[in-house]
Design brief:
This protein is an alpha/beta fold and 330 residues long. The protein contains 13 helices and 9 strands. The N and C termini lie far apart (74 Å). The longest helix has 27 residues. A 5-stranded parallel β-sheet has the order 2-1-3-8-9, with helices on both faces. α4 packs parallel to α9.
């Protein structure tokens, strides 16, 4: 009996040690968890990049922080993906949680596109309770805290693959080609095989997917975009941005959502804010599928965005402008 108790206590003790070491690993390396978690462990921010996966992968905070004088209001990327950060009540709650509210001179870049402002055809009433992220009770907007490390609410309730830290460590060691790394500033870096034949096949597959999506623009999602823009307008400069995509995606969006730019411009006019529309630049950037910018071209686009910010805010730091433009020219 004594031996049994001893072995049981030893087992519990060893299990506890392993659990503590696991938590320590996650505490120091939250990027190993998944493609979202790290964003819920960082401090609240005075400046935010918002939107779906286009901006999560395509707008680099480190470039903006170097090129734009934010007066100490460092910007982070708090974009997620179609669903988790489609514009609606969940994302609105998330924005209010992540914003520090300590400054009235922040910068808020909101990436807009038809898909994050759409709902299914079956949602006849355009009811927000029938939005995918609301019905599925996704993590965005539902966490008790968006700035806690470790964030046990996320880890216990929304984290599926508990072995991912070890998988990601192994992938880093072997220099795995498809490595996904979420940076501390919220930028999602995706390393992927960019062989022309393979990439063209990816673009073709996603083109067929988006051609058949049964969605429509949602007035309710537009209302929440309006609400987010109006809310953030009290804390600094709000910029609406439509990012470039492939020529194929541009054609699909212009055909299915011809009224989109007019609707966004109305929101911009309502709050006297800028709408930077880069859709005409579509086809000029390397993408990993039909609409996500490749990581190197994410930097190119972010520099282009900073040039527009320069004209709007007159805040580009001259010492960085020259260096980055030289880099683009290479």
């Amino acid at each position: 009996m004594k031996k049994y108790i001893y072995n049981t206590l030893l087992y519990i003790f060893l299990l506890g040690i392993i659990a503590i070491l696991y938590i320590i690993l996650i505490f120091f390396r939250p990027d190993l968890v998944d493609s979202f978690y790290y964003r819920f462990t960082t401090d609240k921010a005075n400046s935010l990049i918002l939107g779906g996966s286009r901006s999560a992968q395509g707008i680099k905070p480190d470039v903006i922080n170097k090129m734009v004088d934010l007066d100490g209001n460092k910007i982070i990327n708090h974009s997620f993906a179609l669903g988790p950060s489609s514009f609606g009540p969940n994302y609105y709650r998330e924005v209010t949680k992540k914003l520090s509210k300590e400054s009235t001179s922040g910068l808020f870049i909101i990436s807009v596109g038809p898909w994050t402002l759409a709902t299914g055809m079956t949602n006849i009433e355009d009811d927000s309770t029938k939005f995918f992220e609301v019905e599925e009770k996704l993590f965005v907007g539902n966490l008790k805290s968006s700035s806690t490390n470790p964030n046990f609410d996320y880890l216990f309730n929304y984290w599926n693959n508990k072995f991912s830290p070890f998988e990601n460590i192994f992938k880093s060691i072997i220099n795995y080609e498809g490595l996904i790394r979420l940076h501390e500033d919220g930028w999602l870096e995706i390393s992927i095989d960019m062989d022309t034949i393979i990439n063209n096949a990816r673009i073709k597959r996603s083109e067929e997917e988006y051609k058949t999506k049964q969605v429509k623009l949602s007035n309710t999602r537009l209302y929440f975009l309006d609400k987010i823009a109006g809310y953030l307008n009290n804390y600094g400069n709000v910029i609406l941005v439509r990012m470039p995509v492939t020529s194929q995606m541009k054609k699909i969006e212009n055909s299915r959502f011809p009224e989109f730019d007019e609707l966004i411009q109305k929101i911009a006019d309502k709050y006297n804010i800028q709408y930077f529309n880069f859709i005409k630049e579509s086809g000029k950037f390397l993408t990993t599928d039909i609409h996500h910018l490749y990581k190197d071209d994410s930097e190119r686009f972010t520099i282009m965005l900073c040039d527009s910010l320069n004209k709007s805010l007159n805040s580009i730091k001259p010492e960085f402008e020259i260096g980055y433009r030289t880099k683009v020219a290479k």
